[in-house]
Structure formats: C-alpha cells, structure tokens
Amino acid sequence: MTVDNPPVHSVPTRKHTALPKARTLVEALPWLTRHHGRTVVIKFGGNAMVDDGLKSAFAQDVAFLRHAGLRPVVVHGGGPQISAQLERLGLASEFKAGLRVTSPEAMDVVRMVLAGSVQRELVGLLNRHGPLAVGLTGEDARIMTAVKHYAEIDGERVDLGRVGEVSDIDTGAIEALLDDGRIPVVSSIARSAEDGHVYNVNADTAAAALAAALGAETLMVLTDVEGLYADWPHSDDVISKLTASELEELLPELSSGMVPKMEGCLHAVRNGVATARVIDGRVQHSILLEIFTDEGIGTMVVPDDPHDPLDTDAPHDSENEPEETAT
Ligand SMILES: Nc1ncnc2c1ncn2[C@@H]1O[C@H](COP(=O)(O)OP(=O)(O)O)[C@@H](O)[C@H]1O
Ligand SMILES: CC(=O)N[C@@H](CCC(=O)OP(=O)(O)O)C(=O)O
C-alpha cells in the first residue's frame, strides 16, 4: 500500500465514531460566542452540595466555563454545614425570615465552616483542573462591607444578631483575579466599617450584590429544587420565566430559603444583570445545560425592559435561540 492510496474504508469509520462529539461541540458554538468574555456569578447553595459526585461535576462545569472564555465567579453557601457544626457544638440554630439568627459565638462557627471548610473544599475541587481557584471572603481586600441587618416580621423590626447586609462592594480584587484567568471563590462574610465586627451575610444576597457590582451577564443560583415553584408546597409547577415586576409581586408570598434567593435575583436584574436564574443543583452539569444548550432548566428572571434582548432570550425562550451554526 502506498501513501498516495490510503485504504478508503478506514476514513469513514474514524469519522463516524468522532462525529457525535464534534456535533455536540459545534452545537455549543453559538452559545460560546454569545457568552465569551462575560462574567457569570454562580451561587452554589449548601443544599445543592449533597454528594461528592455533584460537587465534582460542579467544579468541572465551572472550570469548563473558564476554559471556554467566560469569567466565572463562585459564591458559595453552606447553611446545612453550619447547622451541623452548631449542633455538634451544642449551639442554638434558628432562622427568622429565611436568615440565621447569629450570636457572636455562632458567627465564629459560621466563619470557620464557610471560609475554613466549604470554601477550601470547592477550591480544592476546582484546582484539580489547573491552578484556577482562589478562595476569599468578603473581608479580603474589602470586597464586601456589611452593615447590621434587621428583619421585618409582621411589621416589627427584629434583631438577628450578627447578620449583615452588603453596604459596599469593592470589585478590585475579584477583577484582578479574573483578569489573571483565576476563578474567585467567595465566602459570604463581611466586616462592618461601623463597629468592626464580622457579619454573616446570606450567600444569595452576597452573590446578587456581587453580580450587580461586577456588571455580570448572569447570576446563576444552584439550589435543591427545580426552580421557583408557583404554588409551593402544594404544586411542583416551576415558573420558567418572569419579569422583575412579576417577581416583585410574588415576593410577599414566598417563604424560607426562597426569600433571599428571589430578592437577590430581583436586585441583580434591577441593577444591570441581564438574567438571574434559579436552577436545580442536584442535576449533574446543570450549569452547562443552562449556559450551552437550549434545554434551559429552572426559573429565569429578566428585567422589565431588557436593554439587550440577546441577553435574555435564551435558553428559556426558544423563539429567539442563537442561529444554528451550519454543520
Ligand atoms: N416557592 C418556592 N419554590 C421553591 N422552593 C421554595 C419555595 N418557597 C420555599 N422554598 C424552599 O426554599 C428552599 C431553597 O432554599 P435554601 O434551603 O436556602 O437552599 P440553598 O442552600 O440552596 O440556599 C427549597 O428547598 C424549598 O424548601
Ligand atoms: C444570614 C444567613 O442566613 N447566612 C447563611 C450563610 C450561608 C448560606 O447562605 O448558605 P446557603 O446558601 O446554603 O443557604 C447561614 O448562616 O446559613
């Protein structure tokens, strides 16, 4: 056999086995083009971190986004992990208006669990894929500054202890890491400029504030339900898309962990973020499904008047999907 006459039968066989993979990659091309260079803030909820397989898949997805040219920022939760540690130490754990009542002793535990345990684990998983992840808390380089937060329950102002809301954000350190090709992994703890104490900030609230301050394209919240249920807990109909005004009307009816999540989504889209999505973190590779396919899952919140329709049309609105790329 000469080089000029290769065996013709071997060429189609090789092509055949590689083709499905090539098609999958090419199908992602319009989405890759759309999202290239955009910042995506991903909130990984403690309830979605249910097993090692899901955590590894999460890290693969985030590393994939980074290698695909997006700028992912991770903000993580850890509510169940904090509760377990408080219980081990015999410290009380109570939630009011979806937020943990946090004594100074509990605050030490919150900080230890979020920054010392959950964040370290995620950084470790991400760094299996290269020298990518850098862990921070809101305290570092004053990324987040807090003020004490009071809840309002039945018209009453309620003191939750060391619970903070974000009063100021300095994105400098995060931007520098992103420009350097790193993946910032942020724990939702912030120091107050007023009293110098460290405060426990709900991770949804922190992620939303960061997404708005960074001018992110998308805020993606991974949790342990399929999305926002229209009539929870009576039905499992997921609201697939809603505008900021529609969400604002729904807010008073929401309960528990959905309150800070949806308030965060509203804050994000009212402050320049093109889409805020609540998706099921229990589905492996839910991030990739949401970003790179037309199988949009979960709930998407969009501004009332999106300034860039391209940002909000996919994947929950199939009429306006990116154009097919010729294969
Ligand atoms: N309308 C709703 N739709 C979906 N989940 C809801 C709704 N209202 C309350 N929830 C509760 O909110 C929870 C998610 O919030 P949370 O427990 O704080 O999760 P995470 O740790 O991911 O932040 C769900 O598991 C569900 O129990
Ligand atoms: C004030 C407040 O409630 N802080 C949260 C911070 C962690 C968090 O938000 O974790 P998830 O995203 O897993 O719920 C807490 O102490 O549980």
Automatic annotation (TrEMBL):
Q: Fetch the NCBIfam families from UniProt.
A: argB
A single GO molecular-function term is: acetylglutamate kinase activity
Gene3D superfamilies in alphabetical order: Acetylglutamate kinase-like
Task: Spell out the subcellular localization from the entry.
Answer: Cytoplasm
Q: Which family does it belong to?
A: Belongs to the acetylglutamate kinase family. ArgB subfamily.
The answer to whether keyword Nuclease applies is no
Q: What does this protein do?
A: Catalyzes the ATP-dependent phosphorylation of N-acetyl-L-glutamate.
Matching entries from SUPFAM superfamilies are given as: Carbamate kinase-like (SSF53633)
Instruction: List every stretch annotated Disordered.
Output: 300-327
Q: What is the lineage of its organism?
A: Bacteria, Bacillati, Actinomycetota, Actinomycetes, Kitasatosporales
Q: Does the keyword Glycoprotein apply?
A: no
The Basic and acidic residues compositionally biased stretches are 304-319
Q: Where is this site: Transition state stabilizer?
A: K43, K261
Q: Where does substrate bind?
A: G78, G79, R100, N200
What's the protein called, per UniProt?
Answer: Acetylglutamate kinase
Which reaction is the catalytic activity of this chain? Answer: N-acetyl-L-glutamate + ATP = N-acetyl-L-glutamyl 5-phosphate + ADP
Keyword annotations for this protein? Answer: Amino-acid biosynthesis, Arginine biosynthesis, ATP-binding, Cytoplasm, Kinase, Nucleotide-binding, Transferase
- Domain Aspartate/glutamate/uridylate kinase: residue ranges: 39-280
Pathway, per Swiss-Prot/TrEMBL?
Answer: Amino-acid biosynthesis; L-arginine biosynthesis; N(2)-acetyl-L-ornithine from L-glutamate: step 2/4
This entry's Enzyme Commission designation comes to 2.7.2.8
